[in-house]
Amino acid sequence: MNKYNKYLITLFYLSLTIFNSNASEINLEFERSAIEEHCEAVFENFENKLLENNWEILTSNNHTTDYLHLDNNNQVTVRKILRGDKINGIRYIFHDGIQNPKLMVNVDKKCIVKLSRLLIKNEKGTINSIANLSKDLKSVTDQEYFNPPLPESKPFIGTKVAIVDTGVNYTLEFINSNLSRINNKTLSGYDFEDDDSLPFDIDISRSLFFPFHHGTAVTSIILREAPLSEIVAYRFPRSDMCKFKLLINHIASNKIKIVNLSMGSKNEKDWMCFKNAAYQHKNILFFVSAGNDGINIDDKGVYPASFDLENILVITSSDIFGNLARESNFGKNSVDFLIPGEQIPVIDHRGVRTKASGSSYAVPRVVAMAVRYLSNNPNASVSDIKNILISRAVKNNKFVKYGWIPDPLDDYLFD
Fold first, then answer.
1. Residues 286, 278: contact at Cβ < 8 Å?
2. Of 162, 172, 401, which Cα lies nearest the Cα of 305?
3. In degrees rounded to 5, what are phi and psi of residue 382?
4. Residue 280 contacts by C-beta under 8 Å, 6 or more apart in sequence?
5. What residues contact 72, with CB distance under 8 A and at least 6 apart?
6. In 105-157, which ranges are continuous DSSP H helix?
């Protein structure tokens, strides 16, 4: 039996353990009956009669209402999905108690379940996975794991590059084989959001039921264009951005010169701890995305891209002809390079080949260039890396400081 098959068997038994340990959460009799009762009332125009059946309205605005069931004190959030002026469906979010989401169900105008996602939690209340359910809400069809086990592998030795993002799907073979490790079982990177050593690609800040994934796709570009990259994966500390000081110190301890940071926001305060830590580590070069708001960030700041730091390079996206891509940010003072970043082939967190566009995906193309240069010139300084990239740019571009790099795969001047 090979190592991959052993891993799949381990994951299968883990899923059974999680499912069985949360058997009480899979009992959805109340939820099924509540949907049937409410949905019928909505489409037959006697919704107010629900208040006679142990329901109480907590809040109501626009097309969303929060109900409390008086028998079990559980909250149900109901959002009507409209097409024009008509109700086309309903989204239900059931809670354990108040404001503790548990189950999301979408039904159509015939009250037929179209989509349902259940949060599977452990004894501490931490989410282990999201389960997709059958239409009758009685069985699990598949699960999306938050922190699956790390497959063992020999440490990869190459040119180290830090990926600071939503994490990576380290269960995918093409990612796992290039991960930097302390040993066969432990990664060199870290998850500064969950405070553990499993920086899995997931971000629930936008939605618990539909997590955002980003880091795997970004990393796939680097690995395709710089196969010698030794990936040191970090999950960024969204809930406490001042942990960036610890994160950057960790990068420094790993002796990493190149950091891919395909992210940012308009809130300067969120990034001040990053700025201070980056300033203290001038031997680390941060490659940062300019953002995708279609604005001049010389006038309206986006951070960390708008910080005036010597060890930051800011990248925005162009089409293949060197034109600024639609919605990509720019700035003659704040943005350094224009890089082809539209319809770039990526492998997403599911392992599916697709395409992506935007400054986030232009950044790893420049990072891959830097990795290839550093692989041939391991003693190169941050200044050396910057200068070789600047020398490759076509000057006199009105949108950025240094210009456009037409073909990031060309290694001209890199030897």
1. yes
2. 401
3. -60, -40
4. 248
5. 30
6. none
Map 58-90 to HEC letters.
EEEECCEEEEEECCCCEEEEEEEEEECCEEEEE
Average pLDDT on 191-208 reads: 95
Edge-first strand order for the sheet with 337-340 is 190-191, 229-235, 159-165, 258-261, 285-289, 312-318, 337-340, 403-404
Alpha-carbon distance of 201 to 348, in angstroms, equals 10
| Interatomic CA distance for residues 360 and 70, integer angstroms | 47
CATH 3.40.50.200 corresponds to the domain 159-404 = yes
The single-letter code of the amino acid at 306 is S
Domain locations along the chain: 24-145, 159-404
For the entire predicted model, the pTM comes to 0.89
Residues forming a β-bridge with 159? 229
Q: Which residue has the tokens 């940012």?
A: 264
Residue with tokens 């999306």: 144
User: Quick one: pLDDT at residue 10?
Assistant: 39
Give the whole-angstrom CA distance, residue 30 versus residue 94. 10
Q: Are 386 and 327 in contact (CB under 8 A)?
A: no
Tokens of 190: 């870290």
Name the pLDDT band for 126 (thresholds 50, 70, 90): confident
Statement: residue 351 has pLDDT above 50: yes
